[in-house]
Design a protein that fits this description.
This protein is α+β, with helices and mostly antiparallel strands. It is built from ten helices and twelve strands. Strands 1, 2, 5, 6, 7, 8, 9, 10, 11 and 12 form a ten-stranded antiparallel β-sheet that branches. Strands 3-4 form a two-stranded antiparallel ribbon. A hairpin with a 2-residue loop joins strand 9 and strand 10 (247-256). Helix 2 (28-48) runs antiparallel to helix 4 (106-120). The structure holds protoporphyrin IX containing FE.
Length: 305
C-alpha cells in the first residue's frame, strides 16, 4: 500500500497550525512541485526537533483537485455537503489547499509554517490561518473530553485510509473541516447535568450514559451511526480547540476512507431522527466554515509532480 501522510493517523499533539490557501491561476505545475516536497520537509524538521513530535499533511480541495491533477481523481471526492435545517446552517466555504501542522512546540509549528509559505512563494494566497491547542486533558472548550471514541492504534488506518477499493488513491484520506464558534456564555448558563444531557457523557469522569438514559438529541446519539449491515460508520476525528477570549471554538477535522460517513453524521446532527430531534449541541456552537479535501498519499504526491 502507498505510504500515507503522517498527519492523518497521528496521535494528538499540544499545538496545531492550520493554513488555508487559494491557488493562483496558471501555477499548477509549480504547486505540484511544492506539494511533492512537503512530506520531506516535515521529516527534516521532525528530525531536527525530534522531541516536538512534528507531523502534518497537505490536503487538496475538492473544487481544486481537477485543476491540479487533471488526469485522475479520487473516486468519491465531492464538494462539502453544505446543508441548512431548522435554523441550523452548515455552510460550505471552499479552499484550494489546506496544510495541517501539529507538534508539541508552537515555535516549531511557526517555523514550519514560515518554510511552507516560503516554498509556495507567490503561487498561492493565504486566506485563513488558525492556531489550535490542547485544552486541559484533551477537552473541547465546553469542558468535555473530545476524541474518546476515536479509533486507536492500527484501527485508525482502517478507518481513515482508502484501501484497495480505489487503487490509485490508496493511503489517501477524505478530509472534512468545519470551524465551529462556541457560544460559551450560553453553554455555561447550563448546569453540569444539563450539559451532560447535551453530550450524552458525564463531564468530569467522561463516562458514557447508559443507552436508556441518552436523550435522543444528545450529541453522541446523533453522531454514533451504523450502516445497513449494522457496522459502525466510523470517522477519525483530528479536531482541536482554537481561539482567544473573545472568539473560540473547535476546529473540527474528520479523516475517513469515504466521505459518506461524515456527510451522514452531519445530516443526522442537523436533521435529527425521525422525530426531528436535532443535535442539542448545535444550540451552543455555530459552524462558520466547511470544506472538503483529499489528503493523497506521500507516494501519490511524489509520483505526480
Ligand atoms: C463543535 C462541534 C463539536 C463538538 C464540541 C464535539 C464534541 C464531542 C464530544 C465531547 C464527544 C464525546 C467524546 C468522544 O467520543 O469524542 C463527541 C463524540 C463524537 N463526535 Fe463530536 N463534536 C462536535 C462536532 C462533531 C461533528 C461535526 C461530527 C461529525 C460530523 C462529530 C462526530 C462525533 C462522533 C462520531 C463522536 C463519537 C460518538 C460515539 O460513538 O459515542 N462531532 N463529540
Amino acid at each position: 500500500m502507498a505510504q500515507e501522510q503522517l498527519g492523518v493517523c497521528a496521535e494528538a499533539n499540544i499545538h496545531g497550525l492550520y493554513l488555508l490557501f487559494n491557488a493562483n491561476d496558471g501555477r499548477e505545475a509549480f504547486i505540484r512541485g511544492v506539494l511533492s516536497q512537503l512530506p520531506a520537509l516535515f521529516d527534516e524538521l521532525g528530525e531536527r526537533f525530534s522531541e516536538a513530535m512534528l507531523t502534518g499533511m497537505v490536503c487538496i480541495g475538492a473544487n481544486y483537485w481537477d485543476e491540479l491533477y487533471p488526469d485522475n481523481r479520487p473516486a468519491l471526492l465531492k464538494p462539502f455537503p453544505a446543508m441548512s435545517h431548522g435554523g441550523y446552517d452548515m455552510p460550505g466555504v471552499p479552499y484550494d489547499i489546506l496544510v495541517q501542522v501539529r507538534s508539541d512546540r508552537a515555535d516549531v509549528n511557526h517555523l514550519m509554517g514560515l518554510q511552507i509559505a516560503a516554498l509556495f512563494a507567490n503561487s498561492v494566497d493565504l486566506v485563513d490561518q488558525l492556531k489550535g491547542f490542547r485544552y486541559l486533558d484533551g477537552r473541547d472548550l465546553t469542558g468535555f473530553v473530545e476524541g474518546t471514541k476515536n479509533p486507536r492504534g492500527m484501527k485508525k488506518h482502517k478507518v481513515a485510509l482508502v484501501g484497495d477499493e480505489d487503487p490509485g488513491f490508496s493511503g489517501g484520506s477524505y478530509i472534512h473541516i468545519q470551524r465551529y464558534r462556541h457560544n460559551l456564555r450560553r453553554w455555561e448558563s447550563l448546569d453540569v447535568l444539563e450539559q451532560e444531557k447535551v453530550i450524552g457523557r458525564t463531564k468530569i469522569k467522561n463516562q458514557e450514559f447508559a443507552e436508556s438514559k441518552k436523550p435522543p438529541c444528545c450529541h453522541i446519539k446523533r453522531a454514533d451511526l451504523k450502516d445497513e449491515k449494522g457496522q459502525p460508520m466510523e470517522i477519525l476525528r483530528q479536531s482541536m480547540p482554537y481561539g482567544h477570549l473573545k472568539l473560540q471554538g473547535l476546529f473540527f477535522m474528520s479523516c475517513c476512507k469515504t466521505p459518506e460517513y461524515f456527510e451522514k453524521i452531519l445530516r443526522s446532527m442537523i436533521k435529527g431522527d425521525e422525530h426531528r430531534n436535532s443535535d442539542a449541541l448545535l444550540n451552543f456552537t455555530e459552524a462558520e466554515t466547511g470544506a472538503a479535501f483529499f489528503a493523497p498519499s506521500r507516494t501519490f504526491l511524489q509520483n505526480n509532480k
